Known about the structure:
By secondary structure, the chain is mainly alpha-helical. 71% of the residues lie in helices and 0% in strands. The protein contains five helices and no strands.
Amino acid sequence: MKKYLLLALVLLLCAGCSNKSKEIPEHMSEEAYSYGKEALAIIDKYLDSGTGREDTIDELNKIHDNIIYDKEAEGDFYKDFSLQVKISALSQKLNSFGTAGWRSSGNTALANQDLINALDDIEELRNELAKLLETSSE
C-alpha cells in the first residue's frame, strides 16, 4: 500500500513539474507568448543557417504584425508590447545587416569583424527575447 501511495505522489510531483514548463510569463497574453516562442524558433533556425535572411525578416514581420497590444484589454499585458519591440529590433537588425557598408568596404579583415559583430548583436537580441519569454538562452 505504501508503494502505491509513493508512486501516486511521485506521479503528482512529475505532473506538477511538467506543467511549470508551460507557464506563461506574468503580464503576457497566451497569444503573444505563442508568437514569441515562434519568433524564437525562427531566429534560432536563422542562426543555425537553416533559413535565409530575407525569409527570416518576412517571418518575423508577420509575427510582429499579428501581436495585438490592446491597451483596453482586460489584464495588464505590457510584455506583449515588449515582445513586439524585441521582434521588431531583430527584424531591423537583420535588415541593416544585409545592407551594411561592410559588404563593399574592400577590407576583408574589417568586413569579417563587422560580420561577427552583427551576428553577435543578433544573438544578443535573441537572448533578450528568450529572457522575456523566460526561456533559457541555451
